[in-house]
Amino acid sequence: MSEELQKQISLEPERYELAAAAPYRFDLDRRDFFRFLGAGILVASVLKPAVIAQESGGARQRRGDSLPKEIDAWLHLGENGKVTVYTGKVEMGQNIRTSLSQAVAEELHIPMGNIEMVMGDTQFTPFDMGTFGSRTTPTMNLQLRKVAAAAREMLIGLAAAQWGTDRQNLSAAEGKVTDAQTNRSLEYSALTKGQQLTQTVTSDTALIPASGWKVAGQSALKVDGREFVTGRHRYPSDQKLPDMLHGKVLRPPSFGATLLSVDTQKAEQMGATVVHDGNFVGAAAANAELAAAAISAIHAEWKSEPQPSSKDLFDYLRKNTVEGKDPTGDGDRYDVGAVDQALSSADHRLQQTYTVSYIAHVPLEPRAALAKWDGDKVTVWTGTQRPFGVRGQLAEAFRIPEDQVRVLMPDTGSGYGGKHTGETAIEAARLARAAKRPVKLTWTREEEFTWAYFRPAGVIDVSSGVRNDGSITAWEFHNYNSGSAGIRTYYEIPNQRIVFHAANSPLRQGSYRALAATANHFARESHMDEMAHSLKMDPLEFRLKNLKDERLRAVFTAAAKQFGWGIRDKTLPGRGFGMGGGYEKLGNIATFAEVQVDRKSGDVKVVRVVSAFECGAIVNPDNLRNQIEGSNVQGLGGALFEAIEFDNGKILNGRMSQYRVPRFSDVPVLETVLLDRKDLPSAGAGECPMIGLAPAVANAIFDATGVRLRSLPLVPEGLKAS
Amino acid sequence: MTTIRLTVNGSAHTVDADAQTSLLSVLREQLDLTGSKYGCGEGQCGACTVLIDGKAQRSCITKVGTVSQKQITTIEGLASGEQLHPVQQAFLEAGALQCGYCTSGMIMSAVALLRRNPEPKESEIIAFMDGNVCRCGTYPRIVSAIQKAAKLAKGTSAGKGAGR
């Protein structure tokens, strides 16, 4: 991860759940590698190549026994020609197992089928902070390309030495090194035979430019898709061990409740292992039904404190700010020019407030973990976006060193930012330690809705000033609680004051796909529409007048063209058109939406969405489309109807039957325009495409009805004529 | 606890279970058929969908005691050896999955739909499948996959074995 990215991530205070864990420094003896992997060649990528090169006297090929610290990925090419890639990144539906394989296949010139990706196993993969922030493509994909390219160059070097020829005459293709002059060739497996070579990648490792890509840049199906369509893939909740018990935890009746007394006698008589340790009460039994029955048989008394309700949420957030307590210390405030003066001298002024509710991730696979102790060492299989983070939490919970903890992450049933923490892992491990047998614990949907964390709710105040000609002169933006991702404006405005106000949240909150960029873009892009309307300007023209960034202009222009913005049919009753867009996580998005509103029934249907997206050089076009479509569909829920309701420490709608998520019948026609910038580095796409949808829909509803909605979700109860 | 005889994917099984236990739990824990997933426990998401006498049912709210005389088909029973069922093949080719956790249930519902209606219109697919949730939002691809499967099944005889 570059310093810049590291900085960018630390500037997102809404990642409350991450705390600040000290980065782990990997260290390994190279002999251990070969003992474990077998002979062959090993190439490692390091976080700071320049520093490593300095420390090791600039030598590229390492012959000593130590490998550098700060490795972030490595690749092993075995004597059988098989390539194994080790990365701490994890797969949860973004299809990086596939896109990273493409990167390696491209540079190493081998079929994708010869590559095995070992991901998210803390014993065998290098430290990784976690799979979030759309960082896999800009960082890990690039690192693996370098690693694979370095391996290819090593193989060419080995062939040159064997043949006693100049490496300039040799080239690698289809798993072989070939000498074009003599037409002789050697398989990679023949070149790696008996070798134990290691190398670290340096920044000058030459890569194939995107314009020359043959495997990367092409659509590729999910590498292990067959496992999924046959039901063979074992998700974390499908993991099993002999002698395994099933665990269940006693939950407090409300948030923040403390345990006064507990009687576990009946549960124990049922044959369950019962643990009471501080505020933790849990049971393990031969099957899940028995564990649940044992928990029901426990008599516990709790002390609850009065807590806020979702009805008073937005007032509560404003009144409960914690100014100056931001953990990152800076980055929450941006000032330029003289906003107050510019506001008072503007031709038009506008002041509005926007709000967003708490929403739940609802990963279809709830949190699950299987834990097994071996003496004072624990192994946990669990669904998490941060295997190393969960390892740290386990070590802390059980007061054992991290090297006694192994966390494995079988490809999980989605995360969306919601699986960063290790509650289930700790619960399963605690029960397993008491039962002296492996314990599996899967949260119920209700537990997932209640005891996970939510996307932060927020209040956003926007004040703006604009000249008669449509130039924005002043911009004041205050975000309470929802977060600072995407808080800065990309429009050219000489006077700005932008502030994030952290607040005491009544609910546990944390990361959610695109973080606060959804809230901040909703407020900003809705406000842009309101300003355009007050000036009687076309909203596209108004945006472009205030936008210099070429990449953003390109996506707005491309989406407008595909959508037919200039030729939309304004005669259809109840039909409306709107747009939203922006820049986030190195990607650029413009989203145009068409809605149909029936004021009689209150029904609001999004009928068509056009997205234009640009994230540099495209690695896998079909998967990119899949991610953009998915972002729009998931975004539809938060835009239209998803909201967590709560009262006095209890969630009121924590079931699938009570919390509406988008279904087949909600899905509009989705059209995607991809702008492939082969001249720019590849960026991630799991988050950015989501941010334009909510404002596009809100603006389209205004266009259809003249009703301006400033709260997400926009129409949880529909939109009836008042 | 009672002894219950089940016919799953054409094979007879005897399990000891409370008749009130969910079929999903018995499939997953006792028969090790983990392809059917828990998603909500109240029949709202469809991740647990299996075929019971050819009809799509939510195994999380189906009591195991009620299905002992019936033919149960799970995702594991769909392919013939290495030959995928046309619906499985179509999901694979259409890239109709991201995390894949809903996929088993989606495929089983789609198989039931195509048995009843071998050439469904798009609106019929949407209406039939609306009880299955894909949180990753691959719905349009699933609709395409089902249309593709209908064509595949028409072109081969493989589709006739569906649902057993």
Q: Could you list some keywords that capture this structure?
A:
heterodimer, A: 722 residues, alpha+beta, Aldehyde Oxidoreductase, domain 4, 3 domains, seven-stranded mixed sheet, six-stranded mixed sheet, 25% strand, globular, disordered N terminus, B: 164 residues, Ubiquitin-like (UB roll), DNA polymerase, domain 1, five-stranded mixed sheet, 15% strand
In percent terms, what proportion of residues of chain A is strand?
15-25%
According to CATH, the homologous superfamily of the largest domain in chain A is Aldehyde oxidase/xanthine dehydrogenase, molybdopterin binding domain
Oligomer: heterodimer
Overall helicity of chain B:
25-40%
The CATH class of the largest domain in chain A is identified as Alpha Beta
Basic shape of chain A: globular
Strand segment count of chain B: 5
**How many alpha or pi helices of chain A?**
19
Return the average pLDDT of chain B rounded to an integer: 94
- The low-confidence parts of chain A are 1-11, 19-27, 49-64
Distance between the termini of chain A: 53 Å
N-to-C series of helices and strands of chain B: EEHEEEHHHH
Count of domains of chain B: 2
Rg from Cα of chain A: 27 Å
Radius of gyration of chain B: 15 Å
The main sheet of chain B comes to: 5 strands, mixed
Structure explained in plain terms:
- The complex is a heterodimer of chains A (722) and B (164).
- Chain A has 722 residues and is an alpha+beta fold.
- Chain A has three domains: 3-220, Aldehyde oxidase/xanthine dehydrogenase, molybdopterin binding domain (Aldehyde Oxidoreductase, domain 4); 236-304 and 367-442, Aldehyde Oxidoreductase, domain 4 (2-Layer Sandwich); 320-358 and 454-712, Aldehyde Oxidoreductase, domain 4.
- The radius of gyration of chain A is 27 Å and the shape is globular.
- The two termini of chain A are 53 Å apart.
- Chain B has five helices and five strands.
- Chain B has helices at 23-30, 86-94, 103-116, 122-129, 139-155; strands spanning 2-8, 11-17, 49-52, 55-58, 71-73.
- In chain B, α2 (86-94) crosses α5.
- Chain B starts with a strand and ends in a 9-residue tail after the last helix.
- Mean pLDDT of chain B is 94; it is low at 158-164.
- At the A-B interface, α7 and α18 of A face α1, α2, α3, α4 and α5 of B.
